[in-house]
Write a structure and sequence with these properties.
Four copies of one chain form a homotetramer.
Chain A lengths: L5 H26 L6 H8 L3 H7 L3 H21 L6 H18 L1 H12 L5 H25 L4 H22 L5 H13 L5
Chain A binds a DNA duplex through helix 1 and helix 3.
DNA sequence: CATGAATGAGTCTTCATTCAT
DNA sequence: GATGAATGAAGACTCATTCAT
């Protein structure tokens, strides 16, 4: 009789949006943005094509929303790695990266595919540059605290290595010695005497 | 209107093919594979759409041919870096990578976009895995000759760093301190006492 | 939360209906029937899409209701122009037309757009033909009373001119010399000696 | 073996374009621009949907092309009505209009529907205003030569009547006394003593 | 060897309409 | 009486591919 309450509608909407975003993430990760059709996403999300346009004004907007969502989660993670001991913080930082790679492989694939299309989406470039700079600064500071020589250069190498490892894992999958590399990286940079 | 000789035909063929491949490389690098249409390539190459199907049975086939072409060139390069001094070989290897990044930026962009779509093209995966393994083996051997501890692990880190540096350069472009990283990498691994 | 009384409901109904019709008229006039969506109308009227279907079984039905509403108003107007002096009646008739054109421009735009789609809506054609015939008959009678020769033919010309002036005003807007034409028309047909 | 000659291609293209324009004119006239789909046009023209985009970059462009085509034809017509005797020229002008209305009814319907959507297409407004002004100027000059008083005002009335007659014919079709009105108009303005 | 007209399947997007609440 | 989430059919447009010449 009476219309649905605001809360009911909110719930319904959020559920649909979540379904759509989840489906989109998975499909974008597996097939890539261009090769994923709105119809694909709608089907996987269990909604109609039309509904998608109630929540996202288009495919690009959907992508942006997805990225925003991932971004929020990431902020939380970064604040969780801080420790008084810089060695420990750095270790947490590395471990977090490898854990994410293993547990949320799909997100990583999604992001790396996105970065490969960086020229197509301005907001991706800005986001990526910001991320990179923050990462370099953090690692440099940690390395300096630990007592490394050339902390900035080492941070650049590490940032490169971290990214590269991700890409190679993406390529080689289970053939990539992820654990071995993880352990070595930690041993080298977090367990050293002073270097 | 005497018929063209076989040699003339051969020449025309090769010129057309080269035009097409060159146009395709550039467009794939700039716009990506999916967003580049056959019409785009034909126009840039100065040939008709129809002609493309004389030489390549389809868009995928064209991609494969392009990759093969790049691959051949690469073999030549690898043989040029060998030196009796492993330190020198490693340095050549690094320098070659950075030089390629600078001089043939487009190829690198093309390849990284391709790798991001690795699941879409089986032949890309195989090629990439092969490359990776060869690279690791080479670097590991060199590091061992030079006298590094954990040569395999270091090779893995280096391979990661090299790849990651490429991706970050792609992202940051002129903002990336390419020369600085290059010099540091060489200093660290090729100019050391023994490590 | 006592239930609303019948009168209250009636009032609410009528207010909603009036809102919807008003919004529809404006949007149909500005954007045209096809380019106006139900969502547009609902938003402008401040009601939900669903509610519209309580009152009108569909978009076409809404159009028909709108037309009916306009039609009622028009009947009243026609009865207000009658005068014992046919010259005066004709003048009233002309003045009313120009006044409507100026004051209710939107209605005129709406109607002319509708007539342009006459084949799409059967009820529009019937209505329009009826209007035309009545108009011709009235003007013919007046002209005969005034003493014009060929009153029927003149009525046809006048009917054409009246319509055409409307369309041209629609086209040229403020560039059209509406007042000038109005005055001339009245001078020519209502102020003459006998013609 | 050899590709089609330029002339062959030209012929093929022109035939397709003509088919498309013809089909579009008919459908736009009958169903209106908005209610005619590209698929409708393609089917009627006997070509594929895709082909339309080889020749027209979109539906709007097709409309513009159609209008241009009609416009060209019209220029020829206008130059054919001129005569040394202004009475004769005016008569030709009237007769041409009625002839067009009868023989190319479809064009007229098309144009009047277009004018009703004048706000939607900028180029339509400009075209229409230009036409109107030229027409008024011509008729005014003729009336002045013939010796009418108030030639400008009469020209305005005539222009209105001409347009209005067209719209009413469009509405009433065979019920409209086209011939009768035509004859009266000519008698009144071209056969008079002096007015 | 070479062309480009033509096709049609597939894509994104819009919107009238339904219906559970 | 009222809401707005959801649907699905339909429309504009793109593009890899075919084929007559």
């Amino acid at each position: 009789m009476s219309p649905r309450s605001k809360e009911q509608n909110e719930k319904i909407r959020n559920a649909s949006i979540a379904n759509i975003l989840e489906a989109a993430l998975e499909l974008f990760a597996v097939k890539g943005f261009d090769s994923t059709s709105i119809a694909n996403i709608a089907e996987k999300a269990g909604v109609s094509k039309g509904l998608m346009y109630n929540y996202f004004s288009g495919k690009d907007e959907l992508l942006k929303a997805l990225l925003d969502q991932l971004n929020e989660g990431e902020s939380d993670m970064m604040s969780s790695i801080m420790d008084n001991d810089p060695r420990k913080t750095l270790e947490n930082c590395f471990r977090l990266f490898f854990k994410e790679l293993r547990d949320n492989y799909q997100r990583w694939v999604f992001i790396s595919k996105l970065v490969a299309q960086i020229d197509k989406f301005d907001f991706v470039r800005e986001l990526a540059i910001g991320k990179y700079n923050n990462y370099i600064l953090l690692v440099e500071k940690l390395l300096r605290s630990i007592g490394f020589e050339h902390p900035k250069n080492e941070a650049q190498l590490i940032a490169g290595a971290i990214d590269g490892i991700g890409y190679q894992y993406l390529m080689l999958k289970e053939k990539y010695p992820l654990k071995e590399v993880e352990n070595y990286l930690i041993k080298k940079y977090c367990r050293n005497e002073n270097s």
